[in-house]
Prior knowledge:
The chain is α/β, with parallel strands linked by helices and 313 residues long. It is 38% helix and 14% strand.
Amino acid sequence: xxxxxxxDGSLRHLLSIEDLTRPELEALLERSQHYVRRLGEGAPHSQxxxxxxxxxxxxxxxxxxxxxxxxxxxxxxxxxxxLEVQLSxxxxxxxxxxxxxxxxxxxxxxxxxRDSEVGVPxxxxxxxxxxxxxxSAGEAHVSHPTQGLLDALTVLQHKGRCDGLSIxxxxxxxxxxxxxxxxxxxxxxxxxxxxxxxxxxxxxxEGELAGAARETDIARGISGCxxxxxxxxxxxxxxxxxxxxxxxxxxEYGLTxxxxxxxxxxxxxMHPQPMNRGVEIESAVADGPQSVIRxxxxxxxxxxxxxxxxxxx
Length: 313
Ligand code: CP
């Protein structure tokens, strides 16, 4: 049995997009779109999670994911606990599982976890009580499933489809959980032309993201693309000093208006954020008419509402 499913095959946890079926992914996106409309109309919030308690446990920094999971849970009627891990008994040596068991004793039903270590969400999911669910909010460089969902939703809103599109992902792909989850979502939805654009040292290892093309020259890579997704260099994940810094990186890989002109005229620009303006992207592009970066953030709440509601059944 898959580690994120109940014995009847339904989703109990969300640890990765990888084993979702296309109908499951489409159902989550359709439900997300429902919540986009409801939130836009100022409709009354749902009570789908009334009586449930959601705990956010983030051992890595976050602005968008943590806040949007909190808003999503509250808008579904749940109680929310935000554990300040650096002020918790974890710093006194308590293990992640003992912390989780403590919160379970306090009747937490759903854990939202972000951790820099590979395998933590699966470890917790394998050890919680049968009625408890675990949602990954970012697992090391491996997976960020709700980001992949909101990226796919954003493309669907602006392009109407994912199949037949050319999608360029530019930057630090080697260390990017966003790139991995987004590629899984786009591929499942039928995108065949995914281009990974990075210096050789920031490309994923051979064999990873096998269906995508690789290109070290940004001008060649983004030519004719429908979607250009920019990524931050995740310097917190490596010590390699061979990566060009700041202005040098921008000169080789930064997205400028001029470079964006090589993509299709109606291409959209995405970035999961946080972004480093003047390093991977020029402000005129980040804030320009082709940017959908703020839509990505807004979609985060609707996607997380859809995921929480689906898993809570
Ligand atoms: N995109 C994203 O995961 O942002 P945060 O790190 O701010 O949550």
